[in-house]
């Protein structure tokens, strides 16, 4: 078991216009499940590959258990990796696939066989050991990759988009065994995923990456409640946060008829400036009092099964923007209908600097 | 030269489509069968002739065996098998074909792995050069290589013939295998590297097993080309090192030929490729599609 530290870790691909990973500082605690999330191309896979030793660290350093990995070979780091698409050998049985890390290390056949059996039982694939990967279901293949990842008792397991390309129902089935197994074994785990739903359903903490930098690190609840940047606000949530630009006048940011009160310090600093107001779709309502709401036109109504997602187009200061409302009670507006959007009582509003995209201090 | 392309007239099915529609099903099979039979008739004639005496062959057509089956004899075959020159040349064919195939498969797959998966400076340019070499016809190289061999004192030796075949087999081998190897998922290579696999281990444990269909089909193609080759052996071998194809060719003369050696000898030469083809048919088809289908 070990903790993981990235110190100013940077990776620049040959011919790239910006670093894939740009000066990342990140501490992963021993036994923690850290989810790395962010849009594709944000550098989360590269970060994992640098930890695993599949990508060089161009500057900065990567430490595992306090030791600088520098040029340590991938197999000497105590890191195992679960790849996108699972990377099972189609020409080998599930048993041979799980045993690969042991056979590559020339373990004795007897101890290897016992260990494979033990791990296969732990991961629930013991009855499939003699099948080839093509002959078993998606679930079993996924469990097999987990078994292969833990069979050599690694200190750290990296999962690189292991669920990408699977349908949603499979994802829901697939996510839990990873979390359960991780808890049981207490292996430090880094899990890279594009899906923000994945991120907070299993993570101890999440790190949101964008453009090769860590935008925010915290528990899922912390990050969801107070996104540090516009990028994080947009990325987390299903759908992401609504953002609209407003001008601050007399300590109040005005968004149509909606007045967002600022603190005294904010109001003093920002009068006349433009801020970005963020409102979660869950915090908006349809059918507010017209004097204090945002006038808009419903342009799209989607039925999610549980509730409705209403996309409403509004014009603020001559600028068109679309706001999404998660609408659960009351009459559902029809497409093209004029609506007035209000903010739910007690809802959190998020303010960001329009230029830098950074969250404004409260 | 201008190329006229079929123009689709609105409301009218293009000619090609109509022909294709007519041809599918029974009619197509009949046409294929007829063409195949016509194609096979000379071979059948040769095959029957190999079981007739030389005097019968020169006296009457091979089809007369159907009315006079008494002509059939194994004498030609027993003669050929006791002919030292023919047996030596058959042995030479094996000595040329086996190393020429093994070397092309070995060197070609190693080079293809490097071109597909190892990042080195100038890799893409080098690959373009290698692929470009495929367009060089064998004929233009005969004279320069002959001069080179004379300097190296391997002119007329089996080594020279083998090296020529290897040199001209490699560009296609590398091209075919590189495309196939490049389609192997990167994650499989990296999973092996994560467990301490060296390039050599990855080649042996990942590339060779997963690239086997392409490697096998390449081996078959190369084997057949070299086995059936006449031109290269005619130039670079001598009376002692000549393969079967050259030995048989030397039994053909402008006015007549030693048909009693030629017919069974040709069948001897033909039988090995036939066995190889039927034994590895599956790989032939896979190999022809190699590179075109990813997966």
Sum this structure up briefly.
Chain A is α+β, with helices and mostly antiparallel strands and 362 residues long. In chain A, 25% of the residues lie in helices and 33% in strands.
Task: Describe it.
The complex is a heterodimer of chains A (362) and B (295). Chain A has 362 residues and is α+β, with helices and mostly antiparallel strands. Chain A has 9 helices and 20 strands. In chain A, the strands form 4 sheets. Chain A has a 6-stranded mixed sheet with strand order 6-7-8-3-9-10, sandwiched between helices. In chain A, strands 13-12-11-14-20 form a 5-stranded antiparallel sheet. The longest helix of chain A is centred in the middle third of the chain and has 18 residues. Chain A is elongated and about 80 Å long. Chain B is built from 15 helices and no strands. Chain B is globular and about 70 Å long. The C terminus of chain B is likely disordered.
Blueprint (SSEs and pairs):
The complex is a heterodimer of chains A (362) and B (295).
Chain A: E1 4-11, E2 21-28, E3 33-37, H1 44-52, E4 59-64, E5 67-68, E6 79-82, H2 94-104, H3 109-123, H4 138-150, E7 156-160, H5 168-185, E8 188-193, H6 196-202, E9 205-210, E10 213-218, H7 220-225, H8 230-235, E11 242-249, E12 252-255, E13 258-261, H9 264-270, E14 274-279, E15 284-286, E16 294-303, E17 308-316, E18 319-327, E19 338-343, E20 350-353
Parallel strand pairs in A: 3-8, 3-9, 6-7, 7-8
Antiparallel strand pairs in A: 1-2, 1-4, 4-5, 9-10, 11-12, 11-14, 12-13, 14-20, 15-19, 16-17, 16-19, 17-18
Helix pairs in contact in A: 2-3, 2-4, 3-4, 4-5
Chain B: H1 15-23, H2 26-49, H3 54-59, H4 75-81, H5 84-117, H6 123-132, H7 138-152, H8 158-182, H9 186-194, H10 199-210, H11 212-228, H12 231-236, H13 244-249, H14 259-279, H15 281-289
Helix pairs in contact in B: 4-14, 5-8, 5-11, 6-8, 8-11, 9-10, 11-14, 11-15
